[in-house]
Amino acid sequence: MESADTTSPATRTTPRRWRRLGFVLVILVAMEAAGWIGDHLLDFRQKLLWRLTLMEVEAAPTTTDASTVPDTALWIRSSNDGPDPEEPYRVGQTKIQGAGPWVEHLRLTPETCPGLPGQRTFVLGGSAAFGYPYHFDESLAALADRPDASPDHRVLNAARVGATSSDIVPIARTILEHYDPATLVVFAGNNEWFHWRPSGPGSKTGPASRPATTIDSTSRSLLATLSHSRALAALASGVVHLVHNRDARAAPVPVTHDDGFVEHHALTGARHAIENPLTPERYDASQWPEIRQKYLQRFRENLATIITESRSRKVRVILMTMPFQYRLAPAWKQRQPLAGNPRHLETMTRLVDETLALQDQDQPAKALERIREAIRIDPTPPVPHYLEAELLESLERPVEAEAAYARSREAMIGNLGSRLSINRVIREVAAEQEAELVDLRKIFDDYQHRRQRHFNTELIHDDCHPTPLGHTLIAQHLERLLGGARPTEPSEPPEAAPRRPASR
């Protein structure tokens, strides 16, 4: 007779549970291992963190977070532009000739980096430095890179579309730590308010008016924390990639808010800003000077950090000021106030309306007197300065018009405003840190004025990105500093010349 099984059910099931747990652990370890291998090949974790940064909407400047620092991999602009766009590239209502945009990247490692250690130049910045929205071989880094003449010294484009100075710092650190650069070229400053929108007391800006890809700070922090698991990072990266690409495909299309305001409505002109003002009930414009100063201070600190850390490694740093499109519409990105002080709103609105009426009646001199009266009352809003510039231009006083357009850009609240302050900070940091400076704003102005032209119309076709001619001009000044300059500056748009081969 067989003996009875005296083992309790609990005892019998314990090994099974352990086997099941072990099996689950093996699967999880295998998934994580696959994630690490995939991340090493594709660097999807860093792409995820980058896209999360691009999706943020902040009322304060972004910080340099250690979690966003790449390991050893570096993304540079690829010489392979990809396919041509199916439709003409437009900015607002303006068609940009020869534009893509093209934003292809190439992943580098220290072992695959072109050039010899200690002889590499890296260009850092946002989309202006990247060469967006034009071909690779029309960008400043490609034009300054001359592998045929000097194969050991290479100029590589490590700029990123939408990058703020806080995004650039970890990229610079990766280059300094792993890529043995000779020189860092910092061409940045357009994107410091890239993620900012009016908020706070009095603001009616809410989730409905935000871009579809906005992710709140809590969710972003959670995703960034979970991304330490490469398996979870791969899953999150796939989801965010789909959302990001959806918006990227729609990027050239103006954004319409729930209240009817249209971003990127028109590249130039003040009418859209006047018809859609930023009212005190929507946003208290008196908050802006303090907010702007916080961003400028963070920008200053980030530039100083790059210079200090580069100097500690005996790496040369070249700073560049930001040239700008003089005629850019005040409400290009968001509404602008007609008065900085609510007490002046009624008077400023009346004077702006009277100026427009005189302008429509072809009385520019009288209109100029009227808008200057408004500026004397309240010089803080951008619209009166813009109207002053338009009137000076119609009176054939282009140099004065440029100065008035510049004051308008300085007064603009938010993205692409504060151009004079941004360039002042760049010049001050260069002087304080004894870094080399290429004053591109002055170079662009001088180039135009020698040809009896104004407003950077040949050098910047859209809101802020240099044209191929502009990039050629920048590259030639950079080449002089790097020791391989061609002797003359461009005299005609490079579109008239044969295209350089794209292969590198």
List the helices and strands and how they pair.
Blueprint: H1 9-42, H2 44-55, E1 74-77, E2 90-91, E3 94-95, E4 105-108, E5 120-125, H3 127-130, H4 140-144, E6 154-157, H5 165-178, E7 181-187, H6 217-226, H7 230-249, H8 271-275, H9 288-312, E8 316-320, H10 345-360, H11 364-377, H12 382-394, H13 398-411, H14 419-433, E9 436-438, H15 440-450, H16 468-482
Helix pairs in contact: 1-7, 2-7, 5-9, 9-14, 10-11, 11-12, 12-13
How would you sum up this structure, described in words?
The chain is α/β, with parallel strands linked by helices and 504 residues long. Among the domains are: 56-196 and 255-274 and 298-330 and 421-496, Rossmann fold (3-Layer(aba) Sandwich); 342-411, Tetratricopeptide repeat domain (Serine Threonine Protein Phosphatase 5, Tetratricopeptide repeat). It is 45% helix and 7% strand. It contains 16 helices and nine strands. The protein has helices at 9-42, 44-55, 127-130, 140-144, 165-178, 217-226, 230-249, 271-275, 288-312, 345-360, 364-377, 382-394, 398-411, 419-433, 440-450, 468-482; strands spanning 74-77, 90-91, 94-95, 105-108, 120-125, 154-157, 181-187, 316-320, 436-438. It has a five-stranded parallel β-sheet. α5 (165-178) runs parallel beside α9. The N and C termini lie far apart (84 Å). The model is unreliable at 202-213 and 493-504 (pLDDT under 50).
